[in-house]
Structures are given as structure tokens and as C-alpha cells.
Amino acid sequence: MATVELTKDNFNEIVEQNDFVLIDFWASWCGPCRQFAPVYDKAAEENPDVVFAKVDTEAQQELAAAFDIRSIPTLMVIRDRTVIFAQPGALPAPALAEVISQSRAVDMDEVRAKVAEQQAQQQADEA
Known about the structure:
Layout: E1 4-5, H1 11-17, E2 20-26, H2 31-46, E3 51-56, H3 61-66, E4 74-79, E5 82-88, H4 93-105, H5 108-126
Parallel strand pairs: 1-3, 2-3
Antiparallel strand pairs: 2-4, 4-5
């Protein structure tokens, strides 16, 4: 499967309609981004059940700012509309495969419970 270009216009739709999305925040002038691109594209071919998306941080500055992207490339994993991984730096193929494998293994019920607990605590602290 080819990678999907994410924009502020299609971001919510892509994330809401897919349970597992990897996002590569990149820019054309970034050497490590260009180095990482073929690794990312190959992983997309090897994992057809996962949506592989790219955000051009130059063209989509609002989106990059919304996720506080300070360094590129940055890889982000979203499962069930929740960010479960975000890390700057170009990964070699084996490391990317490991991130995907570990992301598949995450218990999302447990993640949702922790998020709800943190939100409840934050609301209690603000009251």
C-alpha cells in the first residue's frame, strides 16, 4: 500500500477511520528524512493492514505545530485515535519493524483506562 499524504483537511478523517496509523513528519530539505523515506515505504508494503501516512512539515505547518514537532523526521504511531509512540530520528529498517511490532502488541483497553484516569485526575486538580 502506498503512503497517504496527510493534511489538516484529511487528518481527522484518516485517523478516525483507521485503527492503526503511522505518521512520518518530514521535509524535502531534510537529509535524514530522504534517507528514511525508502525504509518507511518498504515497511508500508510489508504491513498492508497499517496506514502509513506522511506530513510535509513545510506545507502543513499547522499540523506539525499541533503535534509540537521540533525535529524531523519524527515518527508517530496512533492507535484507536490515541498517540502511543512519538520519536524523532530516522530509524533503520529493523528498528522500524520493532516499533510496528511493539505497537501492535499494545493493549489499547489498558491505554484508554490510563488516559481516562489521567483526565479525571487533571479535572480534579483543576477543581
